[in-house]
Amino acid sequence: MGEGPRRVAAQAMAQVVPAGAAQRPLAMLCPFTTRPQKHWFDDRWVDLAQALHARGWQPVLLGGPSDREAAQRIVDAAAPGTCVHVAGVLKLDESVAAIAQARLLVGVDTGLTHLGSALKVPTVALFGSTRPYLSGGMPSTRVLYDALPCSPCRRSPTCGGRFDCMRQLTVERVLDAAQNLVKEGE
Questions:
Q1: Count of structural domains within the chain
Q2: Which of 4, 75, 174, 177 has the fewest CB atoms within 10 Å, counting from its CB?
Q3: Would you place residue 60 in the very low, low, confident or very high pLDDT band (cuts 50, 70, 90)?
Q4: pTM of the model
């Protein structure tokens, strides 16, 4: 990774992270993907961001240009100053540089989450409608997945849009996985 992407990522983060929060460890949140059955729910991202912030983290939402509106909705729904976003601001190599700075990443089944695993950033990966990698020599990654009778449904959900597989992944469960993963890496 070149110096340019690192510099751009650092500048983007400096513009959105409140000055008083600059010392907080970064928790990258990657909530966006192209299929609704792979999404976790916006209210849960809000609750997760607030809980992480209360525990001393600086939550930052990552995503592409088409994710800007959704990222802003999550930021706006959270308590003021709780989380920020750089969705649509960073190119892919700059997003990689931002992820490399993080001390935690939580995301759904999407490329940015997989990059967290590849970079050995402590990563909590949320899976439901797709079959996750349950092993693969990634001690810095925790996969949360419940093998429901309907899962993995891939591109043909049978739940009538409830997305039960993702609904079972509670904020508390994600927080516990994140805290345990970070603690193990210390």
A1: 1
A2: 4
A3: very high
A4: 0.91
